[in-house]
Write a structure and sequence with these properties.
The protein is an all-alpha fold. It has a two-stranded antiparallel sheet with strand order 1-2. The longest helix has 36 residues. The radius of gyration is 22 Å and the shape is globular. 42% of the residues are buried.
């Protein structure tokens, strides 16, 4: 058979019936992302080699850009466990068209978060202490184990997709292994939902028990502060639309239709429902905090805000602009089915969750809690930005390779043939 030289040199690795850009164009894209990755790797090397003194972290800000970034990507990556729960446990069939992408995004977010945590430890040679010498009285111990275990679950969920690669799937053993893994996937979806729910909650619970930080201190429900539940619900209220936004960005970059509008709208409706539930509890929490927790701490509402970077506008932006408005759009069919409004609402939803993680991480530490304290300004330096950019570049590389060589969107051929 005569070889077609118009096809990319790696076309035999593509999913059956799909088209991809030329290998040279793909290589240029990977090189651009690789430059960002190299910058981040250099920043990470400096931090691991010379310690946290390379960063802008200090005695005031032990948590900074990294932890804000960590918590944000973990929340946005919640689309993986929640979509998996809905697809495999509740058997919502249309989600099968986007579950592969959700798993990849979840894997990127959680593995990237673990990379950042390695840097934030300060002494990477002692990273294993958290597992072997676990502090059983610390919520971070539970978070560490849950994140690690859930990352393993995501790897297991990712493996069948890799084994379905066109050439690998021709090997009988790998073909049957992928099939059998798909059969037991509901089990891993359930385990993943359990693990992710508890570590999302414990991340919030960690802040809620900080008695020396009135901005985040909350009363509890049995042994859990309210923030335990708020972090869980806020994550499932934003994760699904983040998955849709990534799919849409991929469509814009490739010029192809990858996910049907019906599936996007369904994901938006799911996210809008959970966002509305979150807002009910968040408004109640904010009111109880302002009228009860703060007075008992000897503080007023105004004392918790300062200047521009710690101003009240962040609270109103999180609850109103990035909360109520996207919830209304995503829950109203006539608004949700208008692409411009839908994508705007999805972006605002994701921005809102990022603001929430920022104020809990940075503003809580910047606020003075002693008579001799003043409001402190935190300015992350190049090493922190570089390490964060490293995770983004890492994610772009994994996502690009997955889309090019793996059947991430089984419906792609059909959608682009219509």
């Amino acid at each position: 058979m005569e070889k077609n030289y118009d096809l990319p040199v790696d076309h035999e690795l593509f999913p059956e019936g799909t088209k991809r850009c030329s290998f040279s164009k793909f290589s240029v894209w990977m090189a651009v992302v690789g430059v960002v990755l190299a910058w981040g790797v250099y920043a990470a090397f400096r931090v691991l080699r010379y310690g946290l003194g390379e960063t802008a972290l200090d005695d005031y800000f032990s948590f900074g850009l990294w932890i804000t970034f960590d918590l944000a990507v973990i929340a946005l990556g919640a689309g993986a466990f929640f979509t998996g729960l809905l697809r495999y446990i509740l058997n919502i069939d249309p989600l099968k068209h986007i579950i592969n992408l959700a798993v990849i995004i979840g894997f990127i977010c959680y593995s990237g978060a673990m990379l950042i945590l390695v840097l934030d430890i300060g002494q990477p040679l002692r990273a294993w202490f958290g597992y072997w010498h676990a502090n059983v009285h610390s919520m971070l111990t539970e978070v560490t184990f849950c994140i690690t275990c859930y990352c393993i679950v995501l790897i297991i969920e990712y493996i069948p997709l890799i084994l379905e690669q066109r050439q690998l799937n021709k090997i009988p053993f790998l073909h049957h292994l992928a099939h059998n893994l798909h059969v037991v996937m509901p089990l891993f979806a359930g385990v993943g939902a359990f693990l992710s729910t508890f570590h999302q909650g414990s991340l919030g619970g960690m802040y809620g028990v900080l008695f020396g930080r009135p901005y985040v201190l909350r009363d509890g429900f049995f042994i859990w502060p309210w923030t335990f539940f708020l972090f869980v619900i806020s994550a499932v209220g934003s994760g699904p639309v983040f998955t849709v936004l990534v799919a849409t960005l991929m469509e814009k970059m490739t010029g192809k239709k990858l996910v049907s509008w019906e599936v996007k709208s369904l994901m938006g409706k799911i996210a809008g429902t959970m966002l509305a539930v979150y807002l009910v509890f968040k408004f109640a929490d904010t009111w109880a905090w302002a009228t009860d927790v703060l007075p008992r701490s000897g503080l007023t509402f105004d004392q918790n805000f300062f200047g521009t970077i710690y101003g009240k506008w962040l609270l109103w932006a999180e609850l109103g602009l990035c909360g109520v408005i996207p919830a209304i759009v995503l829950l109203t069919p006539s608004l949700r089915n208008r692409p411009g409004l839908f994508y705007t609402a999805a972006i605002l939803d994701c921005v809102g969750i990022t603001i929430n993680r920022y104020v809990f991480t940075v503003q809580a530490l910047a606020m003075p809690v002693m008579p001799f304290d003043t409001w402190e300004t935190y300015n992350p330096n190049w090493a922190e930005w570089g390490a964060s950019a490293m995770v983004i570049a890492y994610g772009a590389i994994i996502l690009s390779l997955s889309y090019r060589y793996l059947p991430v969107f089984p419906q792609e051929k059909k959608l682009n043939a219509e």
